[in-house]
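Sequence, please.
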C-alpha cells in the first residue's frame, strides 16, 4: 500500500519601510517574466552558495516582496532594482505578470490535489499616508492587505504582530523572522509576502526501503544517513558531468528537480556553470524512463541577511541616502535598511515540508530505451529546486551538502 507524501511549502517576504499601462502579448510577457525571475533566482543563489554548507531559500518570495518595493521606487533606484531583479518589463506588465502567476498558483491550489496559496500584506506607520496609486497597485495586483501599526512608539509590539503573521502563514515553521532590533522608531513600512504549499508525492517512497547508507560530504569523507529508495518511471536526463531527475507531486503541477554531479566533489563546478539558460538546457535532456532512485532524508534551516548580497548584485542606491522611493509616500526620504530571509525544508518518505520568509526593512533617511535502468544515487552533494511544471517558475532552490546538518 502506497504511503501518502505530505508536502508543505511556504515563503514569506517582509519589507519594512521607514520614514494605466500598455499590455504586451501575454505569452511573450509571461515568458519574459518567468525567465527574469529564474535568472534572479540563480543569481542570488550564486552569491549565497559561496559560503559552505547546506542552503535553502525561496527566490520567488524574495522577488515578490522586492517587486512590491519596486512599485514605489523611482529614478536610479528603480533602474538599479530592475537590473538586479532582471525586471525587463514595464511597470504595468510586470505587476500584472506577478498577479497572473499568483492566480495560476491559486488555481493549482483549488485543484484538490495540493494546497497552494500566496498572501501579501503591508504594515504601515499610522501617521504615514501612502500614495493612492501605490496603494491601488499593491492591492489590485498583489491583493495585499493594509494594516496600520505604530513603529514610532511601539516598534517591539509591531515586530511581534508581524512575526505572528509570518508564523501563522508558515504553520509555525518560521518563527522570529524579525529579531529584536530589526524595527525601530524610524521604520515606516513593512511589506510581507507568503507562499504556502502542501501536498504529496505522486510516487511516494516506502519506509521499509529506507536504509542507513554512506553519504560522501567530500570525496574522502562520508557520514551515515537514512537513504530512501524506489524504482519507478520519472523524467530523467544525463550529461557527461551530471544527472537530472524530476519527481512530481500529486496532480503533477509541481515537481522537485534534483541536479546531481557525476563526481562526489562536482557540486562547486556545477554551481559555477549555473544560469537560467543552463538549467533549462539540463532539463531539456530529460525524458520519461524507469529509474532506480536513492535520495537521502534531510532537513535544512537557512537564515541570512540579503542586504550586502543585493548591493553586490547592483542594488546600491536603495540602501543609501540616495534612495528614491517617492512612489510610496510624498515628502519623506526612505531607504531599505535590510533584507532578511529564513527558510526551512524537510524531505522524508511521508513528504516534504518547507517554509521560507524574507524581510526587507526600509528606514527614514536621514522516452528512452528502458534497458539498462539508470541509477540515480544521490549519495553526495547535490542541487535541488521546487518548480511549477507548466511555467517552470522556481519557487524554492537549495543544495544538500550534508543531510545530517540541519542548521546553516
Amino acid at each position: 500500500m502506497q504511503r501518502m507524501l505530505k508536502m508543505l511549502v511556504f515563503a514569506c517576504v517582509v519589507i519594512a519601510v521607514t520614514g494605466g499601462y500598455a499590455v504586451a502579448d501575454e505569452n511573450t510577457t509571461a515568458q519574459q517574466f518567468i525567465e527574469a525571475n529564474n535568472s534572479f533566482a540563480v543569481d542570488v543563489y550564486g552569491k549565497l552558495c559561496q559560503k559552505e554548507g547546506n542552503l535553502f531559500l525561496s527566490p520567488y518570495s524574495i522577488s515578490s516582496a522586492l517587486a512590491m518595493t519596486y512599485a514605489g521606487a523611482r529614478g536610479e533606484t528603480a533602474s538599479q532594482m530592475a537590473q538586479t531583479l532582471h525586471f525587463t518589463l514595464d511597470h504595468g506588465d510586470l505587476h500584472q505578470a506577478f498577479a497572473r502567476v499568483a492566480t495560476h498558483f491559486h488555481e493549482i491550489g483549488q485543484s484538490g490535489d495540493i494546497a497552494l496559496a500566496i498572501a501579501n500584506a503591508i504594515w504601515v506607520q499610522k501617521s504615514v499616508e501612502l500614495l493612492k496609486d501605490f496603494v491601488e497597485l499593491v492591492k489590485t495586483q498583489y491583493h495585499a492587505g493594509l494594516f496600520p501599526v505604530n513603529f514610532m512608539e511601539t516598534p517591539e509590539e509591531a515586530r511581534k504582530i508581524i512575526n505572528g503573521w509570518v508564523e501563522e502563514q508558515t504553520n509555525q515553521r518560521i518563527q522570529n523572522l524579525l529579531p529584536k532590533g530589526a524595527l525601530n522608531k524610524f521604520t515606516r513600512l513593512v511589506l510581507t509576502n507568503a507562499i504556502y504549499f502542501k501536498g504529496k508525492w505522486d510516487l511516494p517512497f516506502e519506509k521499509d526501503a529506507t536504509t542507513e547508507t554512506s553519504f560522501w560530504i567530500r570525496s574522502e569523507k562520508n557520514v551515515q544517513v537514512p537513504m530512501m529508495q524506489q524504482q519507478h518511471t520519472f523524467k530523467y536526463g544525463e550529461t557527461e558531468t551530471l544527472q537530472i531527475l524530476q519527481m512530481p507531486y500529486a496532480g503533477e503541477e509541481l515537481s522537485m528537480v534534483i541536479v546531481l554531479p557525476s563526481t562526489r566533489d562536482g557540486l562547486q563546478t556545477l554551481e559555477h556553470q549555473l544560469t537560467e539558460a543552463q538549467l533549462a538546457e539540463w532539463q531539456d535532456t530529460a525524458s520519461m524512463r524507469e529509474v532506480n532512485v536513492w535520495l537521502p532524508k534531510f532537513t535544512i534551516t537557512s537564515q541570512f541577511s540579503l542586504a550586502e548580497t543585493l548591493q553586490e548584485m547592483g542594488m546600491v542606491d536603495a540602501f543609501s541616502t540616495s534612495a528614491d522611493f517617492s512612489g510610496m509616500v510624498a515628502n519623506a526620504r526612505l531607504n531599505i535598511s535590510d533584507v532578511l530571509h529564513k527558510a526551512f525544508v524537510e524531505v522524508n518518505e511521508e513528504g516534504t515540508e518547507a517554509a521560507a520568509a524574507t524581510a526587507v526593512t526600509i528606514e527614514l533617511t536621514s522516452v528512452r530505451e528502458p534497458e539498462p535502468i539508470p541509477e540515480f544515487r544521490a549519495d553526495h552533494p547535490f542541487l535541488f529546486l521546487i518548480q511549477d511544471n507548466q511555467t517552470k517558475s522556481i519557487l524554492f532552490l537549495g543544495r544538500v551538502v550534508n543531510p545530517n546538518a540541519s542548521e546553516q
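The chain has two domains: 6-199+300-364, 207-298+368-400.
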